[in-house]
Amino acid sequence: MRGFLLSALAVCASVVAQTSVDSYVATESPIAKQGILNNIGPNGSKSQGAKAGVVIASPSTTNPDYLFTWTRDSSLVFKALIDQFISGADTTLLGQIQNFVTSEQILQQVSNPSGTVSTGGLGEPHYNIDETAFTAAWGRPQRDGPALRATAMIEYANWLIKNTSVSNVVSNLWPIIKLDLDYVAADWNQTTFDLWEEVSSSSFFTTAVQHRSLREGAALATTLGQTSVVSNYITQAGNILCFLQSYWNPTGGYITANTGGGRSGKDANTALASIHTFDPAAGCDATTFQPCSDKALSSLKVYVDAFRSIYTINSGIASNAAVATGRYPEDSYMGGNPWYLATAAVAEQLYDALIVWKAQGSLNVTSISLPFFQQFLPSVAVGTYASSTSTFTTLTAAVKTFADGFIATNAKYTPSGGGLAEQYSRSNGAPVSAVDLTWSYAATITAFEARAGFASPGWGAAGLTVPTTCQTSGGGGGTGTGGSGTVAVTFNVMATTFFGENIYITGSVDSLQDWSTDTALILNPANYPIWSITVNVPASSDIQYKYIRKVNGVFESWESDPNNEFTSPSGGSFIVNDVWR
Ligand SMILES: *[C@@H]1O[C@H](CO)[C@@H](O)[C@H](O)[C@H]1NC(C)=O
Ligand SMILES: *[C@@H]1O[C@H](CO)[C@@H](O)[C@H](O)[C@H]1NC(C)=O
Ligand SMILES: *[C@@H]1O[C@H](CO)[C@@H](O)[C@H](O)[C@H]1NC(C)=O
Ligand SMILES: *[C@@H]1O[C@H](CO)[C@@H](O)[C@H](O)[C@H]1NC(C)=O
Fold first, then answer.
1. How is residue 313 annotated by DSSP?
2. CA dihedral sign of residues 441, 442, 448, 452
3. Which H helix or E strand runs over 545?
4. Which of 18, 48, 196, 388 is deepest in the core (most CB within 10 A)?
5. How confident is the model at residue 16 (pLDDT cuts 50, 70, 90)?
């Protein structure tokens, strides 16, 4: 009887919570949307002199001064607007989107302390709102910006292909997207400041969004007939996916946010990466850390739990209920408080998970995700639970309640009027730091949309395989770069094959088997349709080669003439990207 009463009370409490979240969603949605539009130049009511299409981070000009435009924030904000435009939720946004494209095209060309457009300038984190360079000291470069901008523009490009023509996109949008993708492909393996602009190392969010951008970029390039870049994008995406795995901390059960920084590594970075690389078609795949993957759920629990005891406003809340969360527990910026966008990201990851479980009609509990699910059902065991089981019903209802709790927490600390600052006080929940943070509004809107079951278009995350050895962007890393007088050359060739058919290489030097077809070297299809092999060849030499096909080891055909040819560099490593002829 007691058990019955308690569960009846729990149901009752969750209904109350849901109702209050429903009403917050209803009142806050238009406020958040207007909050975004107010912060876009030239006509946004709070954008104070920003050029057309420029997104200001916040109208705050002192303590802190955020009257600048960040590539990351702007791209995430416009991604949310492009989602609304493409889904038909708001068809009035086309002019704003075009303004955004124009302003980013201008900003790409602005020389700045990170470099020029062709020497690293695309990694500059932020600009003045009149589209001039910000030249004071800053944590630069930040290499997530170009990737996020490419992702926003690729979504728009895919709509434009349907709505107008391939040639329109090739002429107008592709040159902008290609600059960003070429930057990502060339520089992903360099250190970067993280999305909080504090730690210079490698950063999970940055790596994850870089991976995404190259996958969808390769697909777009193929659609547009821009085939010369495709194999390099796919090769580098494979290398990035390999590197991405290294952030997982198996003993801690969480994704470590940064390779440097000397912190726990528990960070909103990882939940943000999961929601911004969500692809419903990839199910609960853990190699891309999908929102419902066992690794991302385990990581989410560890991250959320890191804030239970450090914020006064979280005290007295049950250990399996939602709390306010911040960037990372060691944070001290502006007092180190909860952030609206971090707390909303937790909810969004959970809503994304619910979308997939409902679509798949089942939910898996693995040894990795067991602690996450045990929060809601201590007796749950590792296994697969179909939607017809009571375990599925219990867990999905509990996850929904848990997710709504994060929205309810933000709601509780949203001041009357609905304005969203950057943070709210860890001790009393009052708004702290920059007012009207554009990203707070965008994060609120995307969480609400996920709650309503909306997922933006996927990006090709389904069915990816992780290369067996992680290569650096130069191609030779991890496997050595050869002895004296040689250079490690990675040969990538895009070739579709049928089962039993393989791609081999043979060429003009000993290490390429002196044109023998019998002893030609077989390439690795880990990034199919890209086949790869790294071979040490003589430095500073003319090298000629061809690919051949064999079926079950038996010679089938040569590539057409002429021979492929290049001059090897004097040292280091080198990549050639080919398409089978
Ligand atoms: C801004 O508002 C002015 C005045 O209404 C209008 O003429 C102009 O087209 C608007 N600019 C943009 C980029 O929307
Ligand atoms: C493209 O979209 C615009 C704006 O939504 C619409 O007016 C136009 O009819 C569309 N054109 C095509 C070819 O779909
Ligand atoms: C470059 O890639 C290699 C191979 O994955 C990795 O070990 C290394 O940490 C990466 N460095 C940076 C700065 O991304
Ligand atoms: C559950 O695991 C099975 C087997 O690994 C997999 O085929 C299925 O897609 C998974 N389902 C979900 C929802 O993760």
1. G
2. positive
3. strand 542-551
4. 196
5. low
| Crossing angle for the helix pair 174-187 and 94-108, to the nearest 10 degrees | 50
The C-alpha atoms of residue 42 and residue 81 are separated, in whole angstroms, by 17
**Across residues 123-137, what is the average pLDDT?**
98
CB neighbour list of residue 17: distance below 8 Å, 6 or more residues apart: 401, 404, 405, 408
Query: Residue 130 corresponds to which tokens in the numbers above?
Result: 């009149």
What's the CA gap between 215 and 185, in Å, rounded? 11
Tokens of 6: 């308690």
Q: At what angle do helices 268-276 and 204-223 cross, to 10 degrees?
A: 10
Q: How far is the centre of ligand 2, averaged over its atoms, from the C-alpha of 162 (Å)?
A: 9
Ramachandran angles phi, psi of 78, nearest 5°: -70, -30
Q: Is the pLDDT of residue 479 over 60?
A: no
CA 91, CA 95: separation in Å to the nearest integer?
10
Q: Enumerate residues lining ligand 4, CB below 6 A.
A: 283-284, 357, 360, 362-364, 384
| pLDDT tens digits along 326-353 | 999 999 999 999 999 999 999 999 999 9
Stretch 177-187: mean pLDDT, rounded? Answer: 98
CA of 243 to the centre of ligand 3 (A): 6
Reduced to 3 states, what is the DSSP secondary structure of residue 91? helix
Phi, psi of 481 (to 5 degrees): -115, 25
The residues assigned a catalytic role are 194, 197
Q: Quick check: 68 pLDDT over 80?
A: yes
Nearby residues of 440 by Cβ (< 8 Å), 6 or more positions away: 35, 339, 340, 341, 344, 420, 421, 422
CB 364 less than 6 A from any atom of ligand 3 = no
Q: Which residues in 225-240 are b (16+ Cβ under 10 Å) and which e?
A: ebeebbbbbbbbbbbb
pLDDT tens-digit series, residues 538-555: 887 778 899 999 888 888
- Does the Cβ of 207 fall within 6 Å of ligand 3? no
| Residue among 122, 53, 77 at smallest CA distance from 276 | 77
pLDDT of residue 3: 39
Structural domains of the chain, ranges and CATH numbers in brackets:
16-451 (1.50.10.10), 486-579 (2.60.40.10)
Residues making up the annotated binding site for substrate are: 138
**Between the CA atoms of 471, 525, 283 and 163, what dihedral angle is there, to the nearest 10 degrees?**
100
Peptide bond into 250 cis (omega under 30): no
Q: Is the dihedral of CA 54, 60, 62, 63 positive or negative?
A: negative
pLDDT value of position 484: 56
